[in-house]
Structure formats: structure tokens, C-alpha cells
Amino acid sequence: MARAYNFSAGPAILPEEVLKQAQAELLDFNGTGMSIMEMSHRGKDYSAVHQEAKDNLKKLLNIPDNYSVLFMTGGASTQFSLIPMNLLGEGQTADYITAGAWSSKAIKAAKKLGISVNELANTAKDVPTRVPGNDLEFTPGAAYVHICSNETISGAQVKEFPKTDAPLIADMSSDILSRPLDVSQFGMIYAGAQKNLAPAGVTLVIIRNDLAEKSPDTLPELFQYKHFMENDSLSNTIPTFPVYMIMLVTRWLLEKGGLEGVQKMNEEKAAKLYAAIDASDFYNGTAVPEFRSPMNVTFRLPTEDLEAQFVKEAAAKGMTSLKGHRSVGGIRASIYNAFPAAGVDALIEFMKEFEAANA
Ligand code: PMP
Q1: pTM of the model
Q2: Domains of the chain by range and CATH?
């Protein structure tokens, strides 16, 4: 059976070469007579996987030595709470930049802890969608500034990160490893794995060591960045299979020429798709052009009925999961690193046919 052109926003498509490698090693990893899922997370075979996953991430992102790479659980959503619990000192406040549903959830989780947070700018309800501009007034003495680099639902991406005095913390769940990055601009970066990294189950955290040190001792150990840093994320049983998949995906990225190479492929795919949207009056992009995400391409058709028909007919042709998020409707084509260029071409072809038949 042919693989689907899977436009899912996450869990999302993984590179076919990676899936084949995992398949080949499933019954017997490295001559051990068992899969990576079935062995101790403290044995030498898993240890080598753990180390390579971290090393590959360090290479791809040029992570400076004073940062730690942590593998946590609970998804990016758990980080929404762990960040204020770990990094907000007594009586301190934090700044939040809101550009959509995910950054809104981060601020909601922080408020739920009863702490005072400052919302600097909010474009969450803007249609067409965008991210806030550079005219932000940061709060002096804030513990950190939180931002979401790519709003998965609306399809708006931060192109240039704000310069802040306080550590900048970015939720990069839906665009991690899609473009080169200067990690030293950030105090912390985090991402759920299930879009550009691996299957669901592990959360990547890249944190400056002096920030991780701030974790209060009163927090349960497994909620502390410090505890993860000091124990190399191995204090309790780690989700070994997702980390192994991070290792394979990052290996694949290194073979593709690293993040410059991947960014070029992503930009080519996205440029073609946005050009097809712009060439037609039938399709309307939902993000302001300068903030268009190369990962999640969102657009509308003239009516919701036509959108439903579009999704259904595309699926019949093997192009799946094009339905926009239930909160906003419309169409969303998620074209992460692993999404093949041929799938974008197939979608553009189908868009032309559909317009000709229905406009
Ligand atoms: N942040 C962003 C930008 C996301 O896209 C998502 C998931 N779609 C989340 C956070 C939540 O991630 P998780 O389901 O891993 O908690």
C-alpha cells in the first residue's frame, strides 16, 4: 500500500527512511535480540542512543556548552505549568506574548497557578492572523518572556525573535529543527516531539544551566528542571522509543545537510503552496503574508460546505488530515520537515482541479 500524503498537524508524518530503519531494527536492535523498547534505560545500548540523540541535537542547533538538553514527559502542555513553577522567583512576574491558541494556553496555565503575569500583546483573535510586532514594552525585572514561535492552529510564525533582557522562553513545538536558530538568544526552548522530532511521548527541553539551577527544592523532583539536568533525564524510566526516534530523525536531518538544507526544502514547499493560494480568488490564505508559517499552511474556501467537500475529495486521493483545527475551521496543510515535496505538488494539482469544478 502506498503511503498517504499525511497533512496531519500532529502526531505528524515521519521520514519514510526513518520508519524503515526502525522497522528493520524492531525485532533485534544492535544484535541484542530485542527491540529498543524492551531493554533497560540504564543499559549500554540505550545509553548510546540517549547520547547520540543529544549529540545530534547539539550539532544541528549548535547548542552552546552552558545549555542542557533534557528529555521530559507530559507534552508541551505540561511545560506551560512547569515553566512558572520552576523559573518564577518569589514575588516575580513574567511577560507573555500571545499570538494564538497555544500561547493563550501557556498564559492560562500560568495564571491558574495564581501568579501575576503580564500579557504584552495579544493577536490571538486577529484574522488574518499574525504575531505581535517589535514594539513590545517588556516589564523591568520580569523573570522571563514567553513566546510561541509557530502557532500551529492559525499558521502564523515568528520570523525574528524579540531582543529581551529577561530570558526568552520559546514554545517551538511545531517548528523546532525547521530552520537554523541561534540558541543563545533563548533561556529555554521546548517542544513536544510529535511534529518534527519523533512520535508523541517525549518533550524536548533545551535550557540554560543557570536557569535550570533556579528550580525550587520544594517542587517534586520530577517537576524540576534542575533534577532532570543533574540526572541526565534518567532519574526515572524515560520514554526510550521516542528518544530513539529522535536519534534517527536527527541523523536523517544531518544527512540532509543540517538545518540550512532543511530550511531550504521547507521554504520551497511552502512558497509553492502559498503561490497557488495567492494565484486564485477561490482560496484565501488566513495568515498575514509576512508571518506565514512554512509548517502549517492555513486557508479558506468560499463556503464551509466547499471546505468539507475539499477535505473529503482530497482524502479519497490519499491526501489526508487537511481539515483545519476544530476551533477555527478552514483548511490546514501541515507540511513539516518530513512531508515530501511531491505531496505538496499533488495538493496544488488537486486544488486546481477542485477550483475548476466548483468555482
Ligand atoms: N504548543 C504548540 C505550538 C502546539 O502545536 C501543541 C500541540 N499541537 C502544544 C503546545 C501542546 O503540545 P502537547 O500536546 O505535546 O502537550
Answers
A1: 0.98
A2: 17-255 (3.40.640.10), 259-358 (3.90.1150.10)
